[in-house]
Amino acid sequence: MRHWLVRVTVNACKDALRSPWRRRMVPLDDCREPVFNTPEHQNLYAEVMALPAKYRLPLYLYYYEGYTAAEVGELLGLGPSTVRTRLARAREKLKAQLREE
């Protein structure tokens, strides 16, 4: 059920991007950020959101939603090895960003 719901949401988002009404929608950048208990979690969230979408989406689905690499691949239309590669690269980029601070 959860897999179906995510897949429907992804397809609805793709449809919204193709829609001429898209310009009338509020961009996600204008939405409020979630509130975290510690500043470390807030900083980590900011760093994750600063990653490019091709790394941010698999990272979110894998770590926050608990999907396997194969399930993330199905959701995003990618192979499991591609998902694992993007996860590894996202972790490397995140590590480099956190070291800079």
Automatic annotation (TrEMBL):
Record-level GO BP terms: DNA-templated transcription initiation
Keyword presence, Cell membrane: no
GO molecular function term, any single one: sigma factor activity
Assigned keywords, A-Z: Sigma factor, Transcription, Transcription regulation
Cross-referenced InterPro entries: RNA_pol_sigma-70-like, RNA_pol_sigma-70_dom, RNA_pol_sigma70_r4_t2, RNA_pol_sigma_r2, RNA_pol_sigma_r3/r4-like, Tscrpt_reg_LuxR_C, WH-like_DNA-bd_sf
Domain HTH luxR-type, residue spans: 66-93
Keyword Cell inner membrane: no
Gene3D superfamilies: Winged helix-like DNA-binding domain superfamily/Winged helix DNA-binding domain
Pfam families: Sigma70_r4_2
PROSITE patterns in the record: HTH_LUXR_1 (PS00622)
UniProt family annotation: Belongs to the sigma-70 factor family. ECF subfamily.
NCBIfam families membership: sigma70-ECF
Designated name of the protein: Sigma-70 family RNA polymerase sigma factor
Organism: Dysosmobacter welbionis
Top-level taxonomy: Bacteria, Bacillati, Bacillota, Clostridia, Eubacteriales
